[in-house]
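request received
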Amino acid sequence: MPSFGAQKGATSESSSVFHLWQGFSIGAVVIGGFVVILFCYAILRFRRKGDNIPRQAQYHLPAEVAYTVIPILVVFGLFAATLVVENKEVANPKTDVTVNVNAFQWGWKFTYPGTHTSVVGQTTQTPTMVIPVNTNVHINLTSTDVIHGFYVKEFNFSRYALPGVLNQFTIEAVKTGTFFGQCTQLCGLYHSLMYFNVKVVTMPEYTAWLAKTSNAAASSAASTATNQQTNTGVPTKPAKSQGGN
Amino acid sequence: MRVEAKILLSLGAFFGVMCAVYWNWSLENAGGVMMFAGMLLCFLPGSYYYWWSRRMKARPEDDPNSTQSEGAGVVGSFPSTSIFPFMLGMAAFLVVLALVFGIWFLVPGLALAVWAFLGATAEGRRGGHV
Amino acid sequence: MTDVIDPPIELASDGHDEHHDVHHGPTGILKWMTTTDHKIIGLSYTVTSVIMLVIGGLFAEIIRAQLATPNGHLVSLAQYNELFTMHGSVMIYLFAGPFAFGGLANVIVPIQIGAPDMAFPRLNALSYWLYLTGAITMLLGFFTSGGAANFGWVAYAPLSNSLNTPGAGADLWIGGLLLTGFSAIFTGVNLTATIFYLRAPGMTMFRMPIFTWNMLVTAILILLAFPVLTAGLIMLYCDRHFGTHIFSTAGGGVPVLWQHIFWFWGHPEVYILALPFFGMATEIIAVFSKKPVFGYKSMVFATLSIGALSLGVWAHHMFTTGVVLLPFFSIMSLLIAVPTGIKIFNWIGTMWRGELWFSTAMLMALGFLFTFLIGGLTGVYLASPPLDFFTHDTYFVVAHFHSIVMALVLAGMGGLYYWGPKITGYMLNEKLGKAQFWLLFIGTQVFTLPQYILGLDGMPRRVALYIHNPQWKMLNDWSTFGAVLVGISTIIFVINVGYSWKKYPAGDNPWDAQTLEWFTTSPPPHHNFYRLPQIRSERPTWDYNHPEHKSLAHGAGTGVLHEPPLAATVVAVLEHGQEEDGPIAGATE
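response:
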């Protein structure tokens, strides 16, 4: 079956969404194609040939009933399919890993509760969230200032990071790899550059990474600065001003 | 007037049902309040028209068999020139600029608005120029 | 021989019965400033809104030029945010709405129902001045030190508060919208009152033209929705300047509340924009198929359904917030596709077995139908939350609504070509019109279709750069090329207006059209009609000109004229020429 532009993605939820997309697309092609055929036929077949006035038909009850009832049935079908996938996406099954995602102007901070691990970066520093494959990962998403959008194309999913609200969802990645993410909700001057990565690794790799970064963070916990996995040469946060670059 | 009344009352009833379903299901107040207000907005003129439609005889525009001569006579008052809409528009402009550039804009704005209101009322009373 | 044509209706008791068109009022600019004539006000609205279209279009061309390369430096990041904010704001608040309900509706609705003017002429004039000053206020932002508003045309909190967006540009945006909001509300009042109270005898509600029906539902939606926006804007202003915390968490406020309030207005707003253009397309398609509107009653009920449902779908713009009731808004949004689909089938039914004449107006209406089909179908995807989750805030949504609004622009251009002769008395050049159509139609598809692909490939909206995905350059370039074609089509339109200036006099009814406005002269006289025909269906002019092809009546009443029509020699039955003297000519009885 053609993909109609979307892709299967890297999580178990994303492939359900993909199949829903394909289903909707088939409906769109069938109905849209039917209408386009009627339209093109009408344009070609009923071009004016002379000066006569055609029969002034004003209604046709069977046709009108058909194109009222059939779309209603189609709509209920689409809604039923939607509910199935939606319930799967908003469900909160038992989770093994939790990550707190904090969006801010203009970067991302990933913390792993119960450990000292924290990953933060802003704009093109592109912080990376590491999660294990084939595991239910529970994300706690919030923002410390304005509304941001957490979006990863391969998850077929996005969710707002709202100040004062904790948005929770679960993802189960089924493929390893590094996936690019971006902020999708306008959040000010550097909205275009608010990048992050999600790196899906095997469980042993994840555990090892977590232990290493957590220990490193714990060992410097006495110092005033928290140890953050950022690139060196962190620029100062851009001033929140309008106008100019 | 019956069709007009029915349109508004049906819309109001629809909003009422939608509001009841939504408010109970979502427990979200902003949308519930707004839909409720929308329902009231439709019921207000709708019930007025409905009440009147049952007491008035058909107007020429409600009578499918009426002729144009039935509509002869004064239809309404249509003043053809007036400076007051322009004046009131400029007054509103100044009042809004007061929100942005300083409260002192309210002085000419409100003065012009009062002048426009008084002038338009007087103009309306004396019939205006048609 | 009984007289079908009735004596002229008296309009006022000031003794000016025979000389309505001889006015000794003000002239020149003072006449414009003091006019209350709905035709002049409507024309002012139309010209001003087309100027806004050009301004908004210029912003779009700059945006597309910036996106021509992954790391463009045409404008700064701050300027880019101002550009897309003002592009959306100008197009939606200052072009599309005013053009539809302030421009063409103002001119056409009273004439379509046989009224001498709008119910409240001075209020009508006030609406125009509020619109003009509101537009100036919003655009003044560009001249402030902080620049114009830059938080998107939707101004989400907390981005739009005084901490994140200080500066006068945002306040001017709010102020401009307060003015244009009241302008719209007053127009809504005027349209409703006019339609309810000033119809000509025999013009029952179910004999009104579909355009007027659409304007009635639009007017009711304006009254339901715009006060909500006004209230929200006042709350936002208070948050910004009076220390309230309605939308900020600091004081216990809720940022998402702004979205609820904004979109409760925002979704009816897009139907307020769409319904008038649907009405224009309906009129044009019927006339240029030489057939009545197919399924008149189902059209009316579909329009009412769209209006009713539109108040219950607002949170489909908020699916990704995670705090709205997904199934409710999903089913309501899916359902609203049904009456829209009914309209599309009725349009095709109108064309079916007709005699299609592809004038510029008809081409524009057909272009509207096709483009709207694409936009409407992609909207169905967005009504499903799982599908919305990954397309929201990407170029897929941008493409969806640009398909829709470009369809509306096509219909609007059709309206100008169709009704231009009635309003001005002169036709527009058809060859230039067709050139404009092809560029506009092809340009629209070329600029929107790549954006669907970009969105599905992950390109977010409101971004000035795409440095991480340079492979998106080619599709962006295609989209830019399409936008340039659209821009050229607009230039051709302006050239056409200049070239055709007072060149091709139109008669009363150059299109052999059907509704009441085509019975009067082009342009109509003061208070619109010298005489009115008998009204027995939704096509009084057609019934008068083609008594042998009469329409069925709707509702109670007979479908046939009470009296036999005047002798055929009197009526200049025309097919597609100009009617030299009008149907009054030679009417001796």
